[in-house]
Structures are given as structure tokens and as C-alpha cells.
Amino acid sequence: MTDAVARIHAALTDAGVTGWLHALDIDSGEQLDAGADQPVCTASVHKLCLLVALHEQAARGALDLAEQVESVPEGRTAGPTGVAAMLDTARMSLRDLAYLMMAVSDNAAADLLLRRVGLDAVNATTDRLGLTRTRAVHSFGEMLATVKEDAGPEGARALADPRVVSRLRALDPARTNRSTPRDMTRLLGAVWRDESCAPEHGAAMRRIMGLQVWPHRLASGFPFDDVHVAGKTGSLPTLRNEVGVVEYPDGGRYAVAVFTRTAHTAATLPAADAVIGTAARIAVDALRARAFRSSR
């Protein structure tokens, strides 16, 4: 595993990012640690925690996933996708809001769900699952509001200035929604082993995560028709993350969490996106090679 860790760090460096990774063989427990316990800002990755809390409440009968919610344009959380980008009133079920939250990272859908579930319930869920370094401290709208406030009167244009970016509370794990790569693979393992909720809810969550539309990060490392990748991205200025599960046709299941930061403030950095898939592939290949050697 030492060689794989060195290759991961080299790939991250070549892409111009600093990164932290944890990979877990969901069934054997074998793991690869490349900064697994580093506190990180989760950004939209924290929507996975909200998804699990939503299904936990549904499993207990505290809410009905078919419950209808109305979203009006006034006061919607901002965002470029889903309900957040719509101009008119929308009405849909909690389960469909969860789909938009995970598949296209819809901020407005996430905050509608969070209003129904509650921040305390999200933290109670991660506590129950033993994710001791994972914490939600604000909604996604509140997180974006801190970015706007910290950027100052110049607004989004100021985010091209590294000095402005350096003061963003949303990029400080001590002051925003946070976790570690190891906590996130532990959460993914619980979802895939049906330990987080009843099996029917686990299946629903796995289905939704498999519908994510973004192929440019984790999935880019596994360009095969018979390998399935289910994940959740997270992005903020200089920050690119993804956590997910890679499933092989031979039954191998691997949870991977990759969190990265770069000094570059550009919103479009293809190499920084792609290295998430590269690093994940190196980690999964190492876990699979170890399993093969152990079986001989």
C-alpha cells in the first residue's frame, strides 16, 4: 500500500492540488489511508448525511417520503441546478427532492429537506453511526451566505483573489460543515451494508446515488461499462470533493472519499477534477491487488 499512497500523492501534486483520501473494501475491511483523518470541509458532500437522516426518519415513521412540499421562488437557496435554478413555484415529494439533491446537487432541494428533517437530526444520525468527526453546523443556504458576506461588496468577482478566498469561513473546517475522509467511507459502508437504515431504505439511497449526473471526478477513473460508480460531489472556491462507492462485476465494493484544495481560484480546472478519479483508481486497484494476493 505504501507505493499506492506515494502514487496518489504524486498524482495530486501533478494536478496542482493538495488532497486527502481514504478507500475501504466494504466487505473485507481492508483500507488505504492517504490522509484519512484530516478535517475537511464537506460542502455538498454533506448532502449524503442529510439523505441518510431523511431515510432514517422515514424508516421510523417520522415522515412519509411521498409527502408533498411546495417551493416558491422567494427565499429559495441559490444554485445552478434543479429547483434552485427554477423561476416558478414547484411542488414535489420529499423523495423527489432527495433525488435532485443528490443527482444534480440542488441546494434549494437540500434546504427544503433540511427544513423538514432538522439539523439536529442530521447530527444525531452521524453520531449514531460513530462518525465522531462529522458535524453539520448550518444549512447550505447559510453556508453560501457566509461566502457572500466574506467576499465583500465586489461579490463573486472577489473570489478570483486568493487573499479573499483565504478568509472564507466556508473553507475552514472549524467553522463549517465538516468531516474526514475516513468518516465518509464509514458512512458509505453503512449505507451499502444496510446498517444505516432498513434494507429498503438502503436500496433507495444507493439508487439515488447511482443517478448522479457528474462524470468528471470519481467516475472518470473507472471508464468501464461493467463497473458502477455511485457518488456525491462537493464544490466551493478552490475546493473539489467526491465520495462514493465503486462496484465491480465480481462483487467487489469499495468506498472512496477524496477531498482536495488548490491554490488556483479558477472555477474550471479539469486536471483538478480528473485527479479525483485518478487517485481513487490507484487506491481501488491497490485494494483489489491485496485481496487477490490474499486469496492465492
Kindly describe this structure.
This protein has 296 residues and is of the alpha+beta class. The protein contains 10 helices and 9 strands. The strands form 3 sheets. The chain has a 5-stranded antiparallel sheet, sandwiched between helices. It has a two-stranded antiparallel sheet with strand order 3-6. Helix 1 runs antiparallel to helix 10 (270-295) and helix 2 (47-59) packs across helix 4 (107-117).
Keywords:
alpha+beta, 296 residues, 9 strands, 5-stranded antiparallel β-sheet, 42% helix, globular
What is this structure, in a nutshell?
With 296 residues, the protein is of the alpha+beta class. It has 10 helices and 9 strands.
Based on CA atoms alone, the radius of gyration comes out at: 18 Å
Q: Tell me the number of strands.
A: 9
Which bin fits the share of residues in helices? 40-55%
Strand-pairing-aware structural class:
alpha+beta
Order of SSEs, N→C? HEEEHEEHHHHHEHHEEEH
Low-confidence stretches: none
- First-last Cα distance: 18 Å
The chain-level mean pLDDT equals 96
Major beta sheet, strand line-up? 2-1-9-8-7
Largest sheet data: 5 strands, antiparallel
Shape: globular
Strand content: 15-25%
Number of helices: 10
InterPro entries: Beta-lactam/transpept-like, Beta-lactam_cat, Beta-lactam_class-A
GO molecular function, one term: hydrolase activity
Organism: Streptomyces griseoincarnatus
Pfam families: Beta-lactamase2 (PF13354)
